[in-house]
């Protein structure tokens, strides 16, 4: 990725469609490393005894080092959108998507946020109304990472009344009639592939329901835990990069007859940056350890919420 990224950014391009295939060929699995996924990767890329959360931590850190948004964007989105299908989806739903995504042939995005709803997931407005063997889906989804490359969406919709218990997840073919995907300009980077998706009377087979009706909010909350670790690892690498660049500059740049790095105030600032970066690294490793020890995702909520705060305050 690294030799090409600057060019992609300069030209306002996105990752090439072959990204995941090429990553896999290079031995980098991009659809997650949970136990249910890793047995489906080519045996030659799985280490003896299987991957654990520390392999994942190192891999995510290295991918984040490749440049802005790399890991959080198209490179990481399959691993964030696929888990609900894996842990809640029926065999029929899994058969539509899992093998192809793991093999890097197809992509899946996670479509939750809307123009009027972000943090408050329980208030989403997109609706799915049952009509015979189909759901008719209407609504808008905003900030959807990789939407332009996605073959499928893990889509949050309202199938019931107000609040968390009215939300369900559907696996949606992103090429369905009635779906419009537009690239969104952002301050972040073009490679991230941020999109705005409009769903206008989209017919989704009822069999594409992920898990049970009304359980979508619970599935999303479970899924957010691991996603928070992924994002915290990236935040840590991005922060470390800022620290390293600042240090280089402070050593090079001279003011009042000496390098910036020799001024006490600047030394304090650099030490403070490094303190935060290392504390975040420790937190990431603590959470990774719990995943390695197979603490179920349902019990990781508070740890991952604290990690999210720690990562946000650091980066
Ligand atoms: C890089 C990037 C990629 C993304 N990718 C995806 C994606 O793939 N799929 C997807 O569905 N979404 C995606 N999102 C959207 C993301 O999930 C939302 O931005 C996030 O949930 C916040 O929602 P919001 O932006 O609407 O802010 P809001 O929820 O409207 O919040 C606005 C501000 O109010 C604060 N706030 C909110 N609630 C409270 C409260 N109770 N008390 C005090 N302060 C509060 C927030 O911290 C924030 O500062 C992405 C966002 C980014 C930045």
From TrEMBL:
* Co-factor requirement: FAD
For this UniProt record, give its keywords in alphabetical order, as a comma-separated list.
FAD, Flavoprotein, Oxidoreductase
Gene Ontology molecular function, alphabetical: acyl-CoA dehydrogenase activity; flavin adenine dinucleotide binding
Q: Where are the transmembrane segments?
A: none
Task: Using the record's annotation, list all stretches that form the Acyl-CoA oxidase/dehydrogenase middle domain.
Answer: 110-187
- Pfam families assigned to the protein according to its UniProt record, in alphabetical order: Acyl-CoA_dh_1, Acyl-CoA_dh_M
Q: Name one GO biological process term.
A: fatty acid beta-oxidation using acyl-CoA dehydrogenase
The Acyl-CoA dehydrogenase/oxidase C-terminal domain, residue ranges: 214-314
What GO CC annotations are associated with the protein?
cytoplasm
> What family does the entry list?
Belongs to the acyl-CoA dehydrogenase family.
What PANTHER family has UniProt attached to this entry?
Answer: ACYL-COA DEHYDROGENASE FAMILY PROTEIN (AFU_ORTHOLOGUE AFUA_6G10880)-RELATED, MEDIUM-CHAIN SPECIFIC ACYL-COA DEHYDROGENASE, MITOCHONDRIAL-RELATED
* Name this protein carries in UniProt: Acyl-CoA dehydrogenase
Q: What organism does this protein naturally occur in? A: Polarella glacialis (Dinoflagellate)
